[in-house]
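Why run this: before we spend reagent on co-expression, it is cheaper to look at a predicted model of the complex and decide which construct boundaries make sense. The entries below are exactly what would go into the expression plan.
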Amino acid sequence: MGFEVLLKGNNMIRLLGGLCTALRISLISAVVSIFLGTVLGILLTTQKRVFNICFRIYLETIRILPQMVLLFIAYFGVTKVFRVNLSAEASSYIVFSLWGTAEMSDLVRASLKGIPVIQYESSYALGFTQTQTYIYVVIPQIVRRMIPLSINLITRMIKTTSLIMMIGIVEVLKVGQQIIEANRKNSPNAAFGVFFTIFVMYFAACWPISRLSKHLEKKWVN
Amino acid sequence: MSIEVMKSYFPRFTEAFFLTIRIGWMGVILAFVIGLITAFTVQWKIPLFAKLAGVYIEIFRNTPLLVQLFFIYFGLPKIGIRIPAQIVGAVGIGLLGGSYMAEGFRSGLESVSKAQTESAIALGMTRFQVFQYVVLPEAFALSVPAILANVIFLLKETSVFSAISLMDLMFTAKDLIGLYYNTAESLFLLVLFYLVMLLPVSLLGGVVEQKVRVRMLGD
Amino acid sequence: MEEILRIEGICKSYDKVEVLDHLSLSVHKGEVIAIVGPSGCGKSTFLRCLNALEPIQEGKIILNGDTIDPESRNIRVIRERIGMVFQSYELFPHKTVLQNLTLAPIHVKKTDRREAEKEAVVLLERVGLLNKKDNYPRQLSGGQKQRVAIVRALMMHPEILLLDEITAALDPEMVREVLDVVLSLAKEGRTMIIVTHELLFAKAVADRMIFMDGGRIVEEDKPKVFFENPKTDRLRKFLHSFSYEEN
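The model came back. Tokens follow.
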């Protein structure tokens, strides 16, 4: 059934290398997104209307378009229009960070909105400034809610980075294709074994994380 | 950016658009059905099937569509299961979507307050009557936002169909960029068509969500 | 007066914590019993055991000769004979007032729709809400919703009515309109068990007062004695907590 091809040479290692590439891009983008998204989310709830409207437009545009389209725009479009040679990898980092930031900022904004205004007011009544209120009163209350949501975003990001093969990055699926191609003659059924293995690899990467998130949600959102 | 060029690409994009919509919505409907069946199987704890349903949900929620499609389209034929690309597309969306929809329905069912169920029981209704007249309508209303979000998500996921040789919007855009180098026009049309595909669903869905919430839950 | 409900030594625990401790009570037809007590004394739990929403670990509850047991086959039928009104009204939000009232009679008692609607209209008129019959619960005030909830329970022709803190969630101005309905039900001879903290109301409507604390009945008296000459210290302290005088 094509599994034997994985035991040949360093095929398995190459596959894992491809998975690492994908994970690297997704996790770095995730970290950037979580950080920037939190900042943006807080800004969105405090700043003026104009600022809000501009960022809403950015948010909704990034969220309504499929990530594949965003990757194309970054990789083909930016390169052509701005004469900057954006590599596929750089495009991926940019797109996923922008997308992740948009998602994260919305999660943060919604969580902040969930804190009743009266909490802010009672804090101001005690003499706290707006910044102090956020640091000591508001953010500690949303952190518990945000952690499972952030973990969920990370899982989504890992899954979405599988798209990067479509703009040529050599990640796990592309490596898989290469292995299948190279072994056409001697392992005609390699496609089954290889893609099944990749399926399992992604599951192994995402499932533990999502279980952690569910566990934390149960523990904390009580 | 030339309007002329865009006009000449229009027909090809339109064809790709309809292909994507067709397969996409077939997948969404399939997802809906699979999701309903799965959600009820889990909620009513039907022996064996509830376990299987649980496994199904975990597998398909934790793997990307692209990997699923590759496996079904390129891998399965090697053990004798050969499925045409369009069906693979719809089935892929259906299986992925079913797992998300199931979670959406299930969370709706769990959100119906215990007190509502109790007041119906206190009136002497059978379990089934309580489910039919109180739980089901309220659960449906509660799951609408999640289901709507899933529909939009699934329609966006159709953008990977070119990986299994379907001539969808992405394929058309890439082809035209590769052949004619009119990147700007191609990308513009690409964005335009996806917006046409997704914005109406999003806006209409928002309206439906509002109406259902008010009518069914009194919010 | 004939005995309609007999409760013998019921015990109930939640996770090893004892909530009801050998409670016994005898309720007679036409009697109105008011149960008061501090938070957590088990009064609501007690009520919920009576229509088998909660299981009991020990003891017996007998309604006109039929034992109430949540596991039994005919518990559903027994529930038709016991009406319950909840603190949070729990009207069905997706149905109109009229539909809320007729849903159970039509599907449970198999009453004809037109008959059920006729009766609903009569009862709605009695509580002054006929003009709201086609409204949805969200369009009603708390007091109106609670009055509808009471009518909904009455539509099943229960032998006994259980009222669980039905005014606790209401704004003060609306408490009166609900209590007026309960008073009129008492006057027409309904058997009722009322859990409440409206002491003045309890005094006016009850035939018998019960004070519960720690899962037990601590004192049981006619209202006059209960309020003016409490026999136990615990009750005296409880009543005192409601007044603001120095002593």
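Chain A has a mean pLDDT of 89. The CA atoms of residues 5 and 88 of chain A lie 29 Å apart. Bring this page to Monday's planning discussion.
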